[in-house]
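Q: What residues go here?
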């Protein structure tokens, strides 16, 4: 008997019998299961996770989990989508609240937000990283969608700042956004995995490295930035 079929009839998820009221609203139950499942998948991976463990964590009967989500594949997909929304919501809020900051304060604030994310919502990040690294048999587009949305916001801010200085950097804004986010992500993972690393020193390093690079580009190498933003026209096979 598989995780998908355990406790189910031949028609799939069990139907709620007449006269059986829910102990709590469906949306509350769904949230309770998602929160429990996020921890189970983060700590055990897709293949090590079980509906039984999720049900225990959610403090509800296993058939209820099946009734709401259908099976482990569907539950994992819902957890990944939910984790993606959590990550985007947190980082977008950070970008929005700091959009009028000075460049230095903006850079420092948003590097700190990445570290906060890894420290305070580690299970959501772990689920996304597991999905991105092929922990599941069925691919999911959610991790890539998260990166696309976050990088878009960073690149738009980067582009607008350079345009205010009279420099059209074109697609280089996307490249710089990718560089900034990958640096922050890499150090945030290292610090979260080993709290012995100095978080504030990492954030300061990222901030100074970024500001130094931007300053050099502005003062000496604008042509490098502009060149990086040019893309050759696509050449067809014919």
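A:
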């Amino acid at each position: 008997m598989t995780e998908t079929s355990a406790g189910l009839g031949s028609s799939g998820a069990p139907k709620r019998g007449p006269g059986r009221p829910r102990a709590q609203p469906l949306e509350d139950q769904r949230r309770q299961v998602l929160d429990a499942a996020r921890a189970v998948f983060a700590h055990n991976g897709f293949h090590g996770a079980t509906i039984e463990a999720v049900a225990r964590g959610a403090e509800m009967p296993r058939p209820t989990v099946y009734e709401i989500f259908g099976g482990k594949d569907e539950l994992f997909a819902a957890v990944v989508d939910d984790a993606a929304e959590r990550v985007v919501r947190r980082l977008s809020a950070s970008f929005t609240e700091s959009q009028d900051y000075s460049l230095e304060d903006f850079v420092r604030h948003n590097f700190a937000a990445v570290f906060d994310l890894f420290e305070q919502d580690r299970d959501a990040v772990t689920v996304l990283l597991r999905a991105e690294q092929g922990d599941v048999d069925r691919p999911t587009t959610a991790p890539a969608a998260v990166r696309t949305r976050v990088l878009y916001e960073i690149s738009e801010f980067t582009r607008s700042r350079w345009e205010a200085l009279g420099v059209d950097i074109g697609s280089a804004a996307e490249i710089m956004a990718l560089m900034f986010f990958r640096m922050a992500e890499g150090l945030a993972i290292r610090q979260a995995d080993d709290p012995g690393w100095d978080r504030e020193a990492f954030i300061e390093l990222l901030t100074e490295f970024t500001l130094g690079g931007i300053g050099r580009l502005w003062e000496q190498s604008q042509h490098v930035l502009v060149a990086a933003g040019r893309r050759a026209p696509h050449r067809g096979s014919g």
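A: Context that may help when evaluating the design: Residues 84-228 form a domain with the Tetracycline Repressor; domain 2 fold (CATH 1.10.357). The chain is about 70% helix and 0% strand.
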